[in-house]
Amino acid sequence: MTDAYPEYSIGTPGKPWTEKDKQAWLDQQYQKRSYFDEVADPLNQLRSEGLIYELINYGTLHYQSLSLSDGANQGSAYADYPLYCAVIGEHQVGLPNILVTGGVHGYETSGVQGAIAFIRDAASAYKGKANIIVLPCLSPWGYETINRWNPFALDPNRSFIENSPSQEAKLAMACVAALELPLSMHIDLHETTDSDNTEFRPALAARDAIEQKVWDIPDGFYTVGDTSRPKPDFQRAIIKAVESVTHIALADKDNKIIGADVEQHGVINYDKKSLHLCGGFTDAPYVSTTEVYPDSPNANDEICAKAQVAAITGAIEHVLSQLS
Q1: What predicted TM-score, i.e. pTM, was given to this entire model?
Q2: Most buried of 22, 89, 108, 277 (most Cβ within 10 A)?
Q3: Which Gene Ontology BP annotations are present (predicted)?
C-alpha cells in the first residue's frame, strides 16, 4: 500500500520529535496492567514449583524516578523493574543451547505469556535433551503501559547493537553473553496487531519525520527468518506446529506480508543484524521471530499463547532432529 498515515497528535509535521515532544508522548502513557502480578509473580511461583532451575535477576530498569508532568499519566506510578532469565534445568555439557525471548515489545502480550506458558507446560520435557534459557519479558514498562517503545520513545527491537541506547536491549545482551553458551537456536516471540497501524507506526512516522507506508495487517500467524541464515526447513517446521493451534497468514495481492516478500507459506525474511533486531544479536544458526495476530476474530488470548508454545516446541523438535 502507498497511503501515508494521518498526522499524529504530537510534534510538528515534517520535523523529528524534540525532547519536549518525547516528554509530551510520555505524559500520555499510563499503567494498564501489572508486570509484577502477571509476570514476576508467576515466574517466582514456577521457580518454587521446581519448573525453573534458576531464576536469574539479570538487571533492573530504574524507571520509578521518571520525570512526569503534574497531572499526567492518570496517577500511574512507575517502578524499578527487575528483569528475569529463567534457566529450565541444570546445565549439561554437550546438549544444544536454546534461547527463548519474549516481550521485547511489551504490548505484544502473547510473547510474554506464551514464554511463561512454555515454561509451565512444555519446557520440562526437554530436560536432558537441551539446555533452555528463557527471557520472558525484556520490556516490563512496555508490558504495563501496552507500548512498543520504552519510556524514552526508543524501540528496543531496533536497538540490539553495541552500546545500545535501550537498557532493555543492553541488559538482555549482557545477560546472554554472561552465560557464555554457544547457542544453537534463538526464537523471539512477537505479535502483529491492529494497533501497529492505528498507533505505533503513525507515532514512528511523527517521531522521525519519515513517511511510513501503510501495510495490511496479516490475519494469522507467520514467522520472520534471517536473510543470512534463513533455514527454510526450520521455519516450515514452526509453521506446521502452529497450524494445529491457529491459522497461518496468507500473502497479500503482491505476495508480501508486512511489505516483505513471502518466501514460503507463512514465512518472510529480514536482515536482522543490520536492523538491530533481537533475533539478530546472537550467532545461533537456527533463528526465528514469531508473529501472532491477536486481533483476529478467530483468535483469543489463550489461542495466541498456545500458538507461541507450539512455535517454540516445533522449533526445538526440528533442531533436535537436525543435531541428533
Answers
A1: 0.95
A2: 108
A3: proteolysis
